[in-house]
User: Fold this.
Amino acid sequence: MSILLPETISEACHLLATHHGAIPVAGGTDLFVHWPQKIEDRGKTFLDLSGIEELKGHRWTGDELILGALSTFWDIIKDLRAQIELPLLLGAARQVGAIQIQTRGTWAGNIMNASPAADGVAVLMAYDAVVRLQSQAGTEEIPLSEFYLGYKAMRRDPGQVLTEIRVPRRGYDFQMFEKVGARAAQAITKVGVAVTRRGEEWRVVANSVAPTVCRCPTLESFLATGQPVRGPHDLVVPLRDDVAPIDDIRSTARYRETVLARLLYFGLRDECPCFA
Amino acid sequence: MEISFTLNGERVVVTVDPSDRLLDTLRESLGLKGTKEGCGEGECGACTVIFDGLPVNSCLIPTYQSRGHVVETIESVSPDELTALHSSGATQCGACSPGVVMTALWVRRNPELLSTHNLREVMAGNLCRCTGYDGIIDGLKGWLDEDGGRRGGGPAAETETRRVSP
Assistant:
């Protein structure tokens, strides 16, 4: 196992170009679990981003929150403006692991680890976040909702490093994030859902119910048309177009589908006049 | 590779392999056995140390990442400071205690945390299989009360702020 320690983004891009397959690492809270005992990691090369000043922290511009690739969950938990403007980020950050994980874990790492259970990804997607990737060939921006191609598969080529996440600053008429896990802390999500609404424009993003964290476009259109909803079951039909939960060590497909519909129904009931 | 960092107020220089974990460097290379390994995967918090002023799991940090940083371990805490935790039953088998104390020390230094977090949330990353947590929470309340400001029969340090659901 070897480690590359770039100090600038351009150096990181150069190293990725010359060390094919090197794995970028930020906070290490996923990649360094049981490390270095994992035999499969021994032949790997890691590109450690932690020394790159340009990637640290986050900043607010007139119309965006820009999260550097090393911005941690704790950075956002402490930011009063994030609490007010983008409260779902705070809601998700506080439910990731516990403090010791929140102080090291990064938003960018949450995206690149590509877990279908990632809470940070669900809320970023509900806010229409865009990821910015850089390589020696240049930079590219991809909406987070179009970034995943399948389980652990992403639109990133091996020479690219995620440098920042851009989150639009705009008002929302409604927003919620709900996570169901075995306990409040240190629990990986069994079912999660983030919802935002601006006017008639809905974003519904579910986690742990498909091979990737995913938008639910059928349900979004269903909500926009204002059809009557008599109970959670009426949401199951459109949801079946959008999600594909499975049985695994944490839960069952049936539980996930039932609970997702209930989280949405009870979360939106006061918001949607068409809900009974 | 040779790196240096500040450990409990002193600069240390240590030669490490890129695959060494901070937890092992502290225990094996530097002989500070107070920090414990529990799960090795960032769940249990037994290996908690304070890194640049924030609690972290030292099992998830490669030692080379500490170069130039500031690390504090349980060895920096005087036993005399811990009367409140001793008398509340905050410790039984002791495996979790070094981590519990380091997280608690961080809370004590940053009491403003308690305007947004309650004690059970800030301590949620330190698992304890003996005490049922009440002893730990009571001990931490007592420790915070020693700092004054909260003395004089006022409400306990714990504020019942709920987990945020925006």
User: Anything to note?
Assistant: Chain A touches chain B through 36 residues (CB under 8 Å). Residues 234 and 261 of chain A are 8 Å apart (CA to CA). The mean pLDDT of chain A is 95. The longest helix of chain A spans residues 253-268.
